[in-house]
Amino acid sequence: MKNNLQTQFLESELAIAAVAALVWSLLGLSLEVLGRPAVGHCQSVQTAPNAASCRVHNQLSGGANVGSGTLIDVTASGERGLVLTCAHLFTEGTGQVVVEFPNGKCHGALVVAIDQQADLAALEIARPPALAVEVNQQTAAVGNLTACGFGPTGAYRCVAGPVLGYSESPGQTSVRIGGAVRSGDSGGGVFDNRGRLVAVVWGESGGVTYASTGGR
């Protein structure tokens, strides 16, 4: 079964090179921009879910690890899509992975790429029910960024706050955003003021959200 899944992916319209480009290159933020803290206040916003946002379930024998994700690419035929989420949902292993969209549709997912250092993972699904979000390929927006996710209960929420700077660790650059995300928001998208994806939430500490922009 594993070999069949690998073969299907290799033969799909989503080439491995495209996955790598989307996950690592297109999520790059400008360190020059991130180095200049913005002035502002965080704000929790209740809003209708973006159709490309989703909840990610990794069902293991001992329970489920639940996070959030974002649809970042769809093939021209509409048959396959790529969801970006956080890698730590799969630290304990990969079980039955299901992606749930706001319209209530659930899709079985195949984990096709994981970068533990950057805390990013890519999932392939069949016949995605929404259009992919635009990914910011240039620089981060100056001012506020908005982090969104489904939390522990599936209730969608966004937190908008100023860019406070960035942190670097081996294989990862993280943007720091004023405002606290919740458990279950990990893997959710961080968006600029034009609605473009710029980073992926991986954690929170002391009222500050941390989101991965990929490896450097």
TrEMBL record:
Sample GO molecular function, one term: peptidase activity
Q: Mind listing the GO biological process terms from this record?
A: proteolysis
Q: Which domain of life is it from?
A: Bacteria
List the InterPro entries hit by this protein, alphabetically: Peptidase_S1_PA
Which keywords does UniProt give here? Answer: Hydrolase, Protease
Annotated PANTHER family: PROTEASE DO-LIKE 5, CHLOROPLASTIC (PTHR43019:SF23), SERINE ENDOPROTEASE DEGS (PTHR43019)
Q: Tell me what this protein is called.
A: Serine endoprotease
The species this protein belongs to is Lacipirellula limnantheis
